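Human:
Focus on the backbone:
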Amino acid sequence: MVNGVVGADTHRRLDPAEFRGFALFGPLAPLVFVNGADTKAAQLFTLVHELAHIWLGRSALSEAAMDSRESETEEQWCNSVAAEVLLPLDDLRSDYGRQMTVEELDRLAKRYKISTLVVLKRIFDAGFLTWDEYTERYRAEHGRVMRLVDDKNGDSGGGNYYRTQPLRLSRQFAKAVISSTREGSTSYREAYQLLGTKKHATFEGLAEELKVA
């Protein structure tokens, strides 16, 4: 599930500075939630991070700072898994131009579709920065990234409800609820609650968007 607001209330944004995602483990239907108010690159990192929690078989609310030296926590382990999946150290060592500039961070971030913060962490992991150099640059870059996130969320409009709501709920979940309601197994009242709507017209609009007959 991906959502950047509370329910469907566009006036109550989920702050990426507070949390980026969570994982709910279950043997039948484990769930990953990603904060959609974050940058796209950060959302991808969160997705892999939360999947790592699922692989461990545990639920978690995730917000592990990458400027912490704690290496034995589960959060830091999941960070390491996500970082290696998205930017393997072997690739970083061969691709890094040895120039610690914003332009170089942006180049690597765009190439690997990750955030500049993850790029910085991998440069440190590869041994190209000392801990003190890394933390100083990380905190400066973190401030820059969060300002960009705030600007993006401040300028964004409401978007197309019928396209964003299935992402907020998960397309599979929304389709399952609509199909169950059409078959008579779920009441329309329950369906409206599960889908976050109060109108039948909205229910039908979601069904049309998801192509549920």
